[in-house]
Design brief:
The chain has helices spanning 2-12, 24-44, 49-70, 78-93, 99-113, 117-125, 129-134, 143-159, 186-193, 196-204, 218-227, 235-247, 271-285, 301-315, 330-336; strands spanning 163-166, 169-172. The chain has a two-stranded antiparallel sheet. It has 15 helices and two strands. 34% of the residues are buried.
């Protein structure tokens, strides 16, 4: 496989126009071609398909790295960068099990782009929407395959303990901001979309629900949208709210204490309770926002334990699969894995 790829890059790839792989159709044609090559090389060399796919991905990474080095350590983009996405698609198609190789592929993608939106956006919006958002079309065939690919790369990124630095911030793979969505985190975009299925996947893998430079806590954005429906709440939004509340110890509202200075409130005043009742009183009355999660009553000990256990698992890159290793009943494993409340 290595000899074939060297010949391909030296004799064939050089004849492809620089923008020759910009179209999804051209990339898919090349993916099909390499699928055939991988099958043939695996049989001819008496190797497994997985080992042959690993050789292909390594060859693509070496080629991309060499081109980048020759250009002053700057990616040439065009067909040279698109080869990484062909490697990404083949790694998924063949369910490549080598964690180090897949991690190296993700690292190379981030080094060039600073985002993983081409893995996330197709799963969130489907195959067509990314073209209008970012000017490219997903390399995966449909939304179902995009979701499967997202889980595949989430699994590898977690097992490889991948983290990425942007300025003073360190992100896990699952939390790297999406450039085409105003640098919002994937979980924030999913919540704004009301995509409960994708939200469940992200939360199980430990996506952080926090305020960022984009706006306040994403859960507040759900509550603000629910207020607009005059108590006729959409099912998807309600589901997103319930799932989000399972993943955080309690709701922390944004409080402008300066606007309340004239009230001369005591130092230990419960501002969270005030916001919950004044701003989201109807949602509390309708039992969509539990009183134990918004400062009206103490948080349940069981829920606090769940959040603490998940935090420890997250710190050790063990979400969600480390839950299965815990010596506890199945019902508690489901509870910690956010399946039940």
């Amino acid at each position: 496989m290595d000899s074939f790829m060297e010949y391909y890059f030296d004799e064939v790839f050089c004849n492809i126009r620089r923008d020759g792989l910009n179209q999804r159709l051209k990339r898919r044609e090349l993916v099909e071609y390499f699928n055939t090559v991988i099958t043939g090389c695996a049989r001819g060399q008496n190797k497994s398909d997985n080992a042959t796919c690993k050789s292909f991905v390594n060859s693509a990474l070496r080629f991309h790295g060499k081109c980048k080095t020759d250009n002053g350590d700057v990616c040439l983009m065009g067909k040279y960068h698109d080869m990484l996405y062909i490697a990404m698609k083949l790694a998924f198609d063949w369910s490549l099990q080598d964690n180090g190789v897949v991690a190296a592929l993700l690292d190379e993608l981030y080094a060039c782009e600073g985002t993983f939106e081409r893995i996330f956006l197709g799963a969130i919006f489907g195959t067509s929407a990314p073209y209008f958002l970012a000017g490219w079309k997903s390399d995966f065939h449909d939304k179902e395959e995009n979701v499967s690919a997202l889980v595949f790369f989430l699994d590898h990124a977690t097992n490889a303990n991948l983290e990425y630095t942007e300025g003073s911030k360190i992100y896990r793979f699952i939390d790297v901001p999406l450039e085409s969505c105003g640098k919002a985190s994937p979980v924030r975009v999913v919540i704004q979309m009301g995509a409960a299925e994708i939200l469940m996947i992200l939360l199980r893998f430990g996506a952080r629900i926090t305020a960022d430079h984009v706006s306040t806590n994403p859960i507040e954005s759900i509550l603000d949208r629910l207020k607009e429906y005059n108590r006729k709440y959409p099912y998807e939004l309600v589901t997103c709210l319930k799932l989000s509340l399972r993943a955080v110890p309690r709701m922390n509202f944004t409080v402008d204490k300066n606007s309340m200075k004239h009230l001369e409130l005591p130092d230990d005043y419960n501002y969270q309770r005030r916001v919950a009742l004044q701003k989201y009183g109807e949602i509390v009355e309708d039992h969509l926002l539990p009183t134990s999660r918004c400062g009206l009553r103490p948080v349940e000990l069981k829920h606090l334990c769940r959040c603490l256990i998940r935090q420890m698992l997250w710190e050790n890159f063990e979400l969600p699969f480390g839950i299965k290793k815990l010596p506890i009943p199945l019902s508690l494993k489901r509870y910690i894995d956010l399946m039940d409340d």
